């Protein structure tokens, strides 16, 4: 953060240069407005946050306890309140990011209304949301600094020089709410050129990190749904290069690319990969195809395709959808090839979409990747699509059973039951959930843990709680008791919603612009004073 007094001096010199015509300009107000608007463009943000992520990646390489985290946010206000909360409770924003989920963009932000996670939403919605999030984070900076400036004025008016010095130190060492966004570009919304154009818009809006997946753009499915279709590596690598070129063109030289593989749950491909020689990347991709070995030309029927791969000539299994099947049981091998290939061709981080949260499963795959690329790092989706309670209770059940421990008191298929909530098995499972991120980062190379849809679920849950009682006998008490009273007692800034929306900043600006003639909203009759 710039030094407050230096900023005043610079503004004063500028005013002097322009002479009497600038007599209405107060250098201290100029300094305040500049400090409140540290980031002038989205590219400023992208460059600043890319450096943060690169530093965090280096620190994780040196110490796997230093992992990073984020929550998915579908609106700028949600992201703003999240970062305000982090600063309040954790005292700093170090290693806390924001995740921008394509699922939530589709489900909550499309002009078509709620849509499934299949790249059906307007692609412009993604950069628009990035810009919106950073607008709200910058406003959080402006608001917090405005409160400090007001406190500084009060300290100076009262002659409390020690307090004034303390506040000025807080201003000079102010930590911004602006943090990295990992932004979901889905499968690129078209060909490599379309991916490049969209990536540019996302970077210009402020994204320092773009996540792209190896599914077919026009067949894209949510990572936790069936029917996923992958593309040959050359197609995917072209899109990784397109994103890199977008970063480089815009001067974000250390931008981060997350290569996501859906191969673990994807049993289909739309294309036979091009191959020019045995063992090349196309041949390796084709070697996973399900098919009948061709030993006689009579096996070939109209419309059949023939592929020579893995030392054999096969007729790939072709479905009525014109898609081709991979052999069952090849998912892990395909994931490992995807990961190594992506890191060798421009990606910085990996994302392996799994069907359950299991440290051992993730470690098995990442150990094989890191045998080739030792510093391979993973972004992992701590997904709400997993039934975390059931998964971990079953993991504990299986571990106990394998160790010879008596599990006769438990029904593995019904471990979700509330009847087990206070059991020793449930308590051990909850402890494993609590330490999952720490354990997986230490053992399985996970640099970043994110939850894609947490604020989608919390918004629904809190709204249900309010609506259930407000429209019943509780009436207004449901809001007062469960919302406003909790805001006051927990120091939630939104209790002064006028201030949060910028009313006090606006009042101060009015004074900057019009002096004593300013008509302010924050006088003694403002009801927000009830929350002082």
Q: Radius of gyration in whole Å, from Cα?
A: 28 Å
- Annotation, overall tally of beta strands: 14
Strand % is 5-15%
CATH architecture group name of the largest domain: Alpha-Beta Barrel
Keywords: Lyase, Magnesium, Metal-binding
Protein name: Isocitrate lyase
Active site: 222 (proton acceptor)
Catalytic activity: D-threo-isocitrate = glyoxylate + succinate
Written account of the structure:
The strands form three sheets. An eight-stranded parallel beta sheet has the order 12-6-4-3-2-1-14-13. Helix content is 48%, strand content 11%. Strand 3, helix 8 and strand 4 (209-213) form a beta-alpha-beta unit. It is an alpha/beta fold and 532 residues long.
SSE diagram, text form:
Blueprint: H1 4-18, H2 27-35, H3 42-62, E1 68-72, H4 76-90, E2 96-100, H5 102-109, H6 125-158, H7 161-172, E3 181-184, H8 192-205, E4 209-213, E5 229-230, H9 233-249, E6 256-261, E7 268-269, H10 281-286, E8 291-293, E9 307-309, E10 312-316, E11 324-325, H11 331-343, E12 349-352, H12 359-370, E13 378-381, H13 388-402, H14 424-434, H15 436-444, E14 446-451, H16 454-470, H17 476-489, H18 497-500, H19 503-514
Parallel strand pairs: 1-2, 1-14, 2-3, 3-4, 4-6, 5-7, 6-12, 13-14
Antiparallel strand pairs: 7-11, 8-10, 9-10
Keywords: Lyase, Magnesium, Metal-binding
Binding site for Mg(2+): 184
Organism: Neisseria zalophi
